[in-house]
Amino acid sequence: MADLSDCPSASGDGLLPVELHAWMLMLAATGAVEQELRTVVKERLDVSHDEFLILCLLAADPGEALRMTRIAELLGRPKTRLTYQIACLQHAGLVTRKSVRDDRRGVEVALTEKARGLLKEASGVLAETVKEALARFMGPAQRQAMCALMPDFAGEAAPE
């Protein structure tokens, strides 16, 4: 994978407005990080990356359930694909799903204790994978911008 900080248009002197250029660099960096994270997620949690994203949404507020329509909205996924992924997670014992009390058509999904334990156990390795990959794929200006989102990222030095 290429070092994105060496991108020829990183100076912002190209045809794209600075906001669009920054967005494209962010997408490229997150795509590279996602590729590395896929392997670790599969090894540690034995789920696909898309299933991992669902678990992460549910882990943001582990005591609460989310409606499937909201999960589909947040991930930008079709509801039919989400239904399959939720079924896989349910079969693995990582989520529960139940009908919404006041809406027969609504379905809520929540983490199980098993999923909470797996996420807690794997979170350190997953976070380190993200930080290391970001340090490799982002130049100094991009790392500085990322520090506002991830304060722990500030201490990471890019490998030489």
From TrEMBL:
Pfam families in alphabetical order: MarR_2
GO BP term, example: response to stress
One annotated GO molecular function: DNA-binding transcription factor activity
SUPFAM superfamilies: Winged helix' DNA-binding domain
Residues of the HTH marR-type domain: 19-155
Protein name per the record: MarR family transcriptional regulator
Naturally occurring in which organism (per UniProt): Streptomyces curacoi
Species lineage: Bacteria, Bacillati, Actinomycetota, Actinomycetes, Kitasatosporales
